[in-house]
Structure formats: structure tokens, C-alpha cells
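REQUEST
  id: r-88c1
  op: predict_structure
  target: Cobalt-precorrin-7 C(5)-methyltransferase
  payload:
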Amino acid sequence: MISVVGIGPGNPDFLTIAALKRIKEADVLIGAKRHLEIFEDVQCEKVIFNSKTDLSKLVKRRGRIVILSSGDPGIYGILDAVLKCAGKKDVEVVPGISSVQYMLARLKIPAKNAAVLSMHGRQVDIVPVVKNHRVVAVFTDSSNTPQKIARTLLLNKIVDRIIHVGENLSYDSEKIKSYKLEQLASSEENFQLNLVVIEKCGNTDSESPTSFL
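RESPONSE
  id: r-88c1
  status: 200
  body:
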């Protein structure tokens, strides 16, 4: 059996009881180095997973295999890749608290009408998504930075938005700052691992459903 386990936004305080139970039962624990370090007291074989790892070989290991995923495995997590290698029959998914859920909660913004998209390693036309939703959460990367997102919106004459930037969410070093578009577009700040939430000024409930793009 392969368990794909969401471990939340990072701080172990947000790890679910179900996730911890599966992790403690593991014969083989697979995850990024920073994830495995959280569970150094768990006695089992540990395998570091990175971009060069052959996942198709790992899922064929014997015993109870647990694959760690940041946040929730199904929200731009590792679940897609695991299912392509192993299929659904022998895969169990243990959901976790995603960084999107966490940040929206910190901002006190209801998640029901938010759009969620990833620009992490992807080129996405963010403009129509922002135009059609009052709240948009965006996974970023070193190329698609908060500043680039702000400049893109301004170039497309979208000016009635605030951008919230959350860094190192759930950790002691967490920072969440809110910016006007012009302010962020010209910022030279070097943001650490971050999530962006774009909110329409004067935000109220919308009829738009939650969407993952």
C-alpha cells in the first residue's frame, strides 16, 4: 500500500492525527529533505525525493510506503505524479491543510469563492482569472514573482486589487504583508518561499465558485 500524506503548510502543529498515524506506520518514508527532517524520530527507511528521483521505482518498494507532500497532496502536490506511476487501486490519500487554506484563514478571507492556480514552473495567463474572481491564490516561483504578477496586472489595466504576500507560512519566520499594486511592482524585496493572494478592493461575497486552474 502506498499512502500519499499531506503534512500541512510546514509547522508540525498543523499536521493531522491521521497523517501522523500513517507516518509512524511507514516502512519506507519518502519526501523532500526538509520534510524528512521533521520526522527524524520515526524509525524506518527514509528516501530523499527530488527532481532527479525516479518515482516509478520508489512506488514498487515493498512494505508500507508513505510519500510526504507539502500542504494537501491533491492541490498542486505530488498526487498526480504518484497516480501516473502506481494507479489508484493501491494508493491511499491522506489530506492535509494546504498553504492556501492556511493563508486565507490568516487573512480571514472565506475560501468558498477563491480561485487557486499555480505558476510554479508553469506559464499561466493570470489576467482572465483575476478579472473573473474577487480572490485568487497563486503558487509562485523564482521566475513568477509577486512583483511580476503585480506588473502584469497593471499592464492589463487591472488596478483595483491588493496583493497579500505570505512567506514561510506557519513557521516562526512567517511574514504576511499586503501591498498596493504600484508599491509591489516597484519593490526590490527578495521574497522567500511564498504564496500570493490577490484580493479585489472592497471585497464582498461573490457568486463565483472555487476553481483550481
